[in-house]
């Protein structure tokens, strides 16, 4: 599970970078505490479905964009 947490965190960080958002920006847009996001982005825990939906909405992405794909599993 830890490996999956790292892959999801990496995808979220990439989406944040592509959107030009900082942690504080994503926290404000998603309504999630910045401290929680910081921990999740460091893969110190697992994202819940609700958190992923809120993050995807804030980033104007699909939830599936934040999940590992075939290229991540190789």
Furnish the topology, listing elements before pairings.
Elements: H1 2-19, H2 23-30, H3 34-41, H4 49-59
> How many helices in DSSP terms?
4
Proportion of β residues? under 5%
SSE order, as H and E? HHHH
Sheet bearing the most strands, described? Answer: none
Distance N to C terminus: 16 Å
Structural class: mainly alpha
Low-confidence segments, ≥5 residues, pLDDT <50? Answer: none
Mean pLDDT: 93
Number of strands: 0
Per the principal axes of the C-alpha atoms, what is the gross shape? globular
What is Rg? Answer: 11 Å
- Share of residues in helices: 55-70%
Walk me through what this model shows.
By secondary structure, the protein is an all-alpha fold. It is 61% helix and 0% strand. The protein contains 4 helices and no strands. The protein is globular.
Characterize this entry briefly:
Helices cover 61% and strands 0% of the residues.
Task: Throw out a few tags for this protein.
mainly alpha; single chain; 0% strand; 74 residues
